[in-house]
Every structure is written in structure tokens, then in C-alpha cells.
Specification:
With about 280 residues, the protein is an alpha/beta fold. It is about 20% helix and about 30% strand. The structure holds adenosine-2'-5'-diphosphate. It catalyses: 2 reduced [2Fe-2S]-[ferredoxin] + NADP(+) + H(+) = 2 oxidized [2Fe-2S]-[ferredoxin] + NADPH.
């Protein structure tokens, strides 16, 4: 852990819910001054598919005249795998963001609102069978892949999984880097995913604003062929390659164009194809 990071943990006491759909925060970890992750209790009835998101939030300020409070909710990808007994989320801190300006101050024992209705397109069901699976993320767009990378199905269905993550600075890669290290070294993860499967996982982190071993936007590195050269891959084709994309609007639009250029078509839950896209939570 770097100096910038801090962890707070506390055994969740089942506090009396005072909010609708209340869940209790069990731990919070601040990764940088822009990023934090947290874990909350999981509603007993909540089932979800890796890669899906739920609406979470806090109560808004009281209305100046009526005094009524409304929930302030945003879509957040569930970062924990579907077998985990708690739920994990990975968030940006926007200083003037209506929700994250407050959410960044949560502490273990606090309550958040969580609507237990998972949805989303970054699910295995939305893709046709393939050999190689690409996960393209920028910033907090890593979250749904943190779930999918801990799902045995990801490793059972593909021969190779390539996790690309582009961030501004090196410290912003830490959440993903630590997760990948944990998947590779944790005995329980090895047993769950299959030791022999771990070699299928390729991690390709890049930064755009701070010096690191691999610099540049993933879009540029795909367009100029650097990624393929680095990984010893000929290219992307609809016969073998599948992709899931989660990042800023800009990344999503640009990657879509690149993937379509390789002949891939966008899929959906009801119409599985070669790739799927979701916007990362922004503020
Ligand atoms: P850049 O530094 O060149 O803007 P953010 O923190 O603003 O969400 O950005 C996360 C990362 O996504 C940054 O490294 C940023 O690069 C990169 N990025 C932003 N827009 C795009 C895009 N259209 N294609 C690829 N990467 C992008």
C-alpha cells in the first residue's frame, strides 16, 4: 500500500436500517485523492451476473420548503464476484459531484441505499462463443471487470483473457494491479479459477499522463499495432475475438469504431454478438 492509500475496516454490526434498501458499509479504501473503493453488506436475496450494475446512493438534502428527502442514486458496477458474501464498488471522487462529493466520506458502519435490481450489458450471455476475450477499461471502468475476472466462467469459456486498463497516472492503476496480483497469487482464487487457467490472463496497463513502462491511450496502441506486437497477436477478428468495453464516453465511441473496423458487431443480452459496451460511472 502506498502512503496515499488508507484502509478502514470494521466488522459490520447489523445496524437498524433507517433508509429504504439500506446496506451497511463494511470497509473503505482510498486509493488516490480521486479514487476509492468500498464494501457493503449484501442483501440476502440479491443475485446478479458478473459485470452487472445496481443503483446505489445516499439520501439527498431535505427540500427547503417541504423538508422531504429523496434518494440520490447513480449506477455503479458491482466490482465483487457473484459468489462474494459482500458487495464491492470502485468510485471516482468528484469534489462538486452531487453524490460522490458526499459518498467519498462514508465510513464503516454507515449506511448507503442499494436498489437490489442488477442489470447491464457486460455479461457473458451477450457474447457469442469465442477464443479470446478483451476487457477494455479506462479509469473506474475497471469495476465490472474486477467482478468478471473473479468469475470462473470467464476462464472456462476462453483460451485467453486480455485486461487492458488505461489511466492518467500510475497510482490510478493500483486498484486493478492489486486485484490482478491477488488473482495470480491467492490460493483460494487459484483453486476457484483453476491454477492451469491463470496463465490465460494477460494484464496490459497503460498510462497517458505519467511515465510508466507502457504509455498511451489503448485506442492509439490498437490503431498503430503496438498491442498486437507486444502480445504476439496477429490482430482482432470476429471469428476468434470477443470484447467488453467500459470507460468514458470518448473511449467507448473510439473503441467501438476500432472494433467495428475489425468486423466485430455489437451484441446485447437478447442478441449476443462479438462485443458489448457500457459507460463507466462518472460523477
Ligand atoms: P488522456 O489522459 O489522454 O485524456 P479520465 O480519468 O479522464 O476518466 O481518463 C482515464 C483515462 O482514459 C486517461 O488515461 C485518458 O487519457 C483516457 N481516455 C480518455 N478519453 C479516451 C479515448 N477517447 N480513448 C482512449 N482513452 C481515453
Amino acid at each position: 500500500m502506498t502512503e496515499q492509500q488508507s484502509v478502514q475496516t470494521k466488522t459490520a454490526s447489523p445496524a437498524t436500517p433507517t433508509l429504504p434498501d439500506a446496506q451497511t458499509v463494511t470497509s473503505v479504501r482510498h486509493w488516490t485523492d480521486r479514487l476509492f473503493s468500498f464494501r457493503v453488506t449484501r442483501p440476502a436475496s440479491l443475485r446478479f451476473r458478473s459485470g452487472e450494475f445496481v443503483m446505489i446512493g445516499l439520501m439527498g438534502d431535505p427540500h427547503p420548503e417541504t423538508g422531504k428527502q429523496k434518494p440520490l442514486l447513480r449506477a455503479y458496477s458491482i466490482a465483487s464476484p457473484s459468489w462474494d458474501e459482500e458487495l464491492e464498488f470502485y468510485s471516482i471522487k468528484v469534489q462538486d459531484g452531487p453524490l460522490t462529493s458526499r459518498l467519498q466520506h462514508i465510513q464503516p458502519g454507515d449506511q448507503i441505499i442499494l436498489r437490489p435490481k442488477p442489470v447491464g450489458t457486460l455479461v457473458h450471455d451477450a457474447l457469442l462463443p469465442g477464443k479470446r476475450l478483451w476487457f477494455f477499461a479506462t479509469g473506474t471502468g475497471f469495476a465490472p471487470f474486477a467482478s468478471l475476472l473473479r468469475d470462473p466462467q470467464t476462464f472456462e469459456d476462453y483460451d485467453q483473457i486480455i485486461m487492458t486498463h488505461t489511466c492518467r497516472d500510475v497510482a490510478e492503476l493500483d486498484y486493478g494491479k492489486e486485484l490482478i496480483e491477488n488473482i495470480r497469487s491467492d490460493e483460494m482464487m487459484g483453486e476457484l479459477l483453476g491454477e492451469e487457467n491463470l496463465s490465460k490472463l494477460v494484464y496490459y496497463p497503460t498510462t497517458t499522463r505519467e511515465e510508466s513502462p507502457k504509455m498511451g491511450r489503448i485506442t492509439t496502441l490498437l490503431q498503430d499495432g503496438t498491442v498486437f506486437k507486444d502480445l504476439g497477436i496477429e490482430g482482432i477478428s470476429p471469428e476468434t475475438d470477443r470484447a467488453m468495453v467500459c470507460g468514458s464516453m470518448g473511449l467507448n465511441t473510439d473503441i467501438k469504431e476500432i472494433l467495428e473496423g475489425f468486423g466485430l458487431e455489437e451484441g446485447a443480452n437478447s442478441d449476443p454478438k462479438h462485443y458489448v459496451v457500457e459507460k463507466a460511472f462518472v460523477g
